[in-house]
Fold this protein.
Amino acid sequence: VQLQESAPGLVKPSQTLSLTCTVSGGSITTNNYYWNWIRQPPGKGLEWMGAIAYSGSTYYNPSLKSRTSISRDTSKNQFTLQLTSVTPEAAAVYYCAKGAGSILLYDSWGQGTQVTVSS
């Protein structure tokens, strides 16, 4: 399975950040697969943001839940993250990753995409 993130690259403060992960080599509806968004701000560790399961169920990091939405387009084999009201602290490398049977362990990662927040 291969994953590829796409994002605008530059977002202004207070705007909504939208990222898409395109999956190839496997279906996002495959039983027991979980599709995750993870980010890494500069100089910091990885932060799990949320996930959408093969069933369509969603899971969110409680600290981001009020501003985060994950959805999917099964016809395109894509899943999308929206993060509202971004601040400069949202600047990070964003990754999508696949988990098999869990949202805690990942066996496939996208290459990551850099997002900058600036006016």
